[in-house]
Amino acid sequence: MGALMNCHEPPCGMGREDSRPGTGHPGGHTGHPSGMPAGPRTLEDGSPLCRLIAWEVTRSCNLACKHCRAEAHPEPYPGELSTEEAKALIDTFPSVGNPIIIFTGGDPMMRADVYELAAYARDKGLRCVMSPNGTLITPESARKIKEAGFQRCSISIDGADAASHDAFRGVPGAFEASLRGIEYLKAAGVPFQINTTVPRNNLSSFKKIFELCERIGAAAWHIFLLVPMGRASGLADQVISAQEYEDVLHWLYDFRKGTSMHLKATCAPHYYRIMRQRAREEGVSVTPATFGMDAMTRGCLGGTGFCFISHVGQVQPCGYLELNCGNDAVPGNLA
Predict the structure, then answer these.
(1) What is the SS3 string spanning the chain?
(2) Global pTM exceeds 0.90
C-alpha cells in the first residue's frame, strides 16, 4: 500500500499545515482538513461540508504491507471505475464543499490514467494530493505528478533503516526505492510528507525516523496509530496498550515544541484531549494562535468532514469503517 493514509486511511493532513503558528502548506490553502476552517460549515440542506475525500482510485499495489487495510495485491481488481466514470465522480465533488482530494489506493500510480484524472480535478478548482508508496516514482512520473497539479505526495516510512521498513512493507528494497522516489519528487518540485505507522516494534525508533524526515526535507511527519483490520488483524502483538497510546501522544505533544516541522497524529482523536489537558496544566490557551487548526479540531471527522470512496465507488465514513453509504454510480449518493 502507499502512504498518505498508511495504506490509505484518512490522514486528515494534506491542507494547510497549521498545527504550529507560522507553518503553511506550499499551496497556501485556507484550512487544515483535520480542523474546521472559517466560513460555512454546512451545505444548504444542513449536512456538514466535506473537507477531505480519500479516493481509492485503485486497490492494486506492488507492495504487501503487514498493516494493509485493503490486503492489496498487484493484480487488477474487478469493478474499478473507468476513466469516464471517474470523471463523472469528480464532477460531483465541488457540490459537497470543495474538498481536498486524496488520490490513494493501493498505489494510485498503478492506475494509468491517474494524471489525467488529477488534471481534470485541478481544472475544476479542486486541490489534489497523492499517496504513492514511492517505489514506482521515476524522474518522468515525478514530472507528470507535478504537471497534473498534485500539490503534495505522502510517502510512508515505517522504520529508520531498510531492514525494519522492508520487513513491514513486505518487499526487499522498498526503503531504498521510496527514498529514491522522494529524491525524484524533490527534483521535480513536488512537496512531500512522511507518514509512519505506530506498531509496538518501532516505538523505540521514532526519534531516528523523525531525524530521517528532517534530513530528507519532509514538509510534515504524520504518525498513524495502528488499526487492526485487513492484514493488520494478524498483528495483535503489535497493537500498543492504552498506556503506550498515552505515552506516544504525550511524547508527540512535547516533541512538536522543538521543531518547525508539522507533526500530526492520525487515527488518534484522543490526542486532542491530551493536547487540551497538557495546555491547561501549562497555562496555555488553546487557540488558533497557539495551536493552529488543531485548536478547532473535534477529533475524528469520519462521516462529517471526511469520507472515503472505495475502488468500486462505495462511499464510506472512512477506510476503516466499511459502512456502505451508497455508490457513486447512483446520482446524489456523495452529496
Answers:
(1) CCCCCCCCCCCCCCCCCCCCCCCCCCCCCCCCCCCCCCCCCECCCCCECCCEEEEECCCCCCCCCCCCCCCCCCCCCCCCCCHHHHHHHHHHHHHHCCCEEEEECCCHHHCCCHHHHHHHHHHCCCEEEECCCCCCCCHHHHHHHHHHCEEEEEEECCCCCHHHHHHHHCCCCHHHHHHHHHHHHHHHCCCEEEEEEECHHHHHHHHHHHHHHHHHCCCEEEEEECCCCHHHHHCHHHCCCHHHHHHHHHHHHHHHHHCCCEEEEECCCCHHHHHHHHHHHHCCCCCHHHHHHHHHCCCCCECCCEEEECCCCEEECECCECCCCCECCCCCCCC
(2) no
